[in-house]
């Protein structure tokens, strides 16, 4: 039975596929998405050991083209787009004038003066408005193509072998953060060696019409390897083990790249960009807080929003899970900068119970090469 609330939610082109596979559906930023199929831990393990297939078609895609496309992207994002060759992409940030995150994103250089921006689903409308305001000063077109694209993510050590027989391109020649235009089982696609799990894998951009067929064919191709369809639950545990930031939890419009340990995506020596002056001031003055990885020393799970008490002052947990791979509770928290050193112990309020925690190096998990 469909409720009025579910009717108001947006659906990806794979909604009927998820329902047919018995997925548990939840509201995720206004989208009705699968949180799990066979269980979060089982799906998590499949990605770490074999392969898992995700629907991430709710993500937003903007196409940027024209003689001023590069200059526009240099202004609106903090990484150096001029360093991208055709066929390569990078992780970056769209920043406010205060140097905080409007969003984090991937930028793809598709052609000489053609680019693709891939943004977070819930932020697509505000990102588009922000980018259009800035694009007015440049000779570049900015088109929201989110409804035309679907996006599948095949992740795990078996991903290349599973996808290889379906793709015309030689996957072994696609480097990390590289991509190729190629047909996947006959469907015109972009195959990108990227992901949000800490494992090797690929993200497949295809038309909304082709997505349901490709999803099923990839599952069929990987059946002998133990592939599983995976939901947002496993996506979250996987990305946190790999210490990948989640917008709305670990970064938002109140946090800067310096604070979020994402200074590596900020290129201060390139041409001017939104937020540069604010970031220069903060870098000179030094940050007062820093996003730090931790493990719980006591029993429990530290969730988003839980208060922390460090030796130098208060902090706050942004993400926390019981790690399926590591067998312990881990998380990320903003702590006073003086307390961000590895080995520092602090306390987290677990709904009225004080639990000991310790700062540890990140990423928590790193795959063997």
Molecular structure report:
There is one protein chain. The chain has 369 residues and is α+β, with helices and mostly antiparallel strands. It folds into 3 domains: 4-55 and 148-241, 2-Layer Sandwich (Gyrase A, domain 2); 60-144, 2-Layer Sandwich (Alpha-Beta Plaits); 288-369, Aminomethyltransferase beta-barrel domains (Elongation Factor Tu (Ef-tu), domain 3), CATH 2.40.30. Helix content is 21%, strand content 33%. The chain is built from 9 helices and 19 strands. It has helices spanning 4-8, 15-20, 40-49, 69-76, 124-135, 159-164, 211-221, 232-241, 276-285, and strands at 24-28, 31-36, 52-55, 60-65, 89-95, 101-111, 114-119, 141-144, 149-155, 179-184, 187-192, 201-207, 228-229, 289-296, 307-310, 313-322, 329-336, 345-350, 353-359. The strands form 4 sheets. A 6-stranded mixed sheet has the order 10-11-12-9-3-13. It has a 6-stranded antiparallel barrel with strand order 14-17-16-15-18-19. Strands 5-6-7-4-8 form a 5-stranded antiparallel sheet, with helices on one face. The termini are far apart. Mean pLDDT is 96; it is low at 1-6.
């Amino acid at each position: 039975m469909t409720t009025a609330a579910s009717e108001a939610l947006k659906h990806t082109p794979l909604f009927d596929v998820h329902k047919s596979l018995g997925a548990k559906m939840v509201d995720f930023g206004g989208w009705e998405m699968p949180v799990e199929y066979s269980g979060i831990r089982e799906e998590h393990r499949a990605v770490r050991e074999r392969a898992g297939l995700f629907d991430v078609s709710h993500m937003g895609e903007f196409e940027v083209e024209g003689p001023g496309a590069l200059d526009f992207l240099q202004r609106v994002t903090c990484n150096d787009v001029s360093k991208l060759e055709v066929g390569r992409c990078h992780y970056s940030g769209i920043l406010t004038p205060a140097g905080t995150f409007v969003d984090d994103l991937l930028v793809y250089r598709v052609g000489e003066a053609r680019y693709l921006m891939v943004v977070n689903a819930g932020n697509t409308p505000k990102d588009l408005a922000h980018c259009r305001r800035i694009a007015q000063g440049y000779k570049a077109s900015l088109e929201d193509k989110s409804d035309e694209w679907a996006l599948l993510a095949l992740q795990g050590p078996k991903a290349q072998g599973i996808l290889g027989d379906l793709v015309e391109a030689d996957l072994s020649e696609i480097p990390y953060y590289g991509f190729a235009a190629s047909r996947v089982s006959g469907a015109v696609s972009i195959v990108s060696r990227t992901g949000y799990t800490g494992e090797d894998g690929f993200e497949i951009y295809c038309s909304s019409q082709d997505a349901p067929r490709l999803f099923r064919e990839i599952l069929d191709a990987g059946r002998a390897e133990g592939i599983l369809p995976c939901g947002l639950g496993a996506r979250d545990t996987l990305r946190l083990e790999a210490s990948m930031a989640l917008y709305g939890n670990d970064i938002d419009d109140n946090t800067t790249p310096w604070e979020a340990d994402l200074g590596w995506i900020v290129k201060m020596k390139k041409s001017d960009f939104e937020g540069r002056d604010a970031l220069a001031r903060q870098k000179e003055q030094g940050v007062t807080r820093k996003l730090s990885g931790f493990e719980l020393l006591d029993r429990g799970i530290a969730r988003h929003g839980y208060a922390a008490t460090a030796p130098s002052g208060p902090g706050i947990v942004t993400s926390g899970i019981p790690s399926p791979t590591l067998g312990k509770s881990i998380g990320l928290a903003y702590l006073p900068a003086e307390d961000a050193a590895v080995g520092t112990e602090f306390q987290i309020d677990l709904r009225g119970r004080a639990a000991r925690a310790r700062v540890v190096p990140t990423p928590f998990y790193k795959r063997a090469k």
